[in-house]
Amino acid sequence: MASHQNPASLSKDELHTLASKAIDAKAYAYCPYSNFRVGACVLLSTGAYHTGSNVEVASTPVGICAERCAIAPIVASIKRPDMPVIRAIAVATDISPPASPCGMCRQFINEFATSKDLPIYMYGKDGLDGDVVKMTIGELLPMSFGPNDMDRNK
Ligand code: THU
């Protein structure tokens, strides 16, 4: 995806919806092995919200994180090059201070981010009533290796 498109900042209502959906998505987590619930929500430039939650299996490395669970169906349902811009992502867990996306998810988010400024909002045990941590994908994954590096090798 093009790296010049900057995700415009979110309105108060959009952030409230994004956060609420990520927090609500925790209820759908399938995490009988860790009991660590994670919910995620992605806001697209189309105005659509897509949620995901972590899904574990008995063979533990096979499970998937909430963030990738939210993003993969978006990518898999839209023909290239029509990919909408991801404007923001929210992640919710039951711990405070809030957890941040794992390394694998940072790499996955980076793949589909059109800007290093893509904001990631993190919510903890008190949900909307608690503290929120906001960081960009560029801050979470500095010196990243991404699609542009593959292009540079052509
Ligand atoms: N998990 C996520 O869903 N997202 C993250 O960014 C960190 C970890 C999940 C994976 C596993 O189901 C559980 O949390 C404990 O690691």
Structural class: alpha+beta
**Text of the CATH class:** Alpha Beta
What topology, given as strand order, has the largest sheet? 2-1-3-4-5
CATH topology: Cytidine Deaminase, domain 2
Which bin fits the share of residues in helices? 25-40%
- Alpha-carbon Rg, integer: 15 Å
Q: Which range does the strand content fall in?
A: 15-25%
Report the count of strand segments: 5
- H/E element sequence: HEEHEHEEHH
Count up the helices. Answer: 5
Biggest sheet details: 5 strands, mixed
Overall body shape: globular
Bound molecules: tetrahydrodeoxyuridine
Fourth CATH level, the homologous superfamily: Cytidine Deaminase, domain 2
CATH architecture: 3-Layer(aba) Sandwich
How far apart the termini lie comes to 16 Å
Uncertain stretches: 1-6
Tell me, rounded to a whole number, the average pLDDT.
94
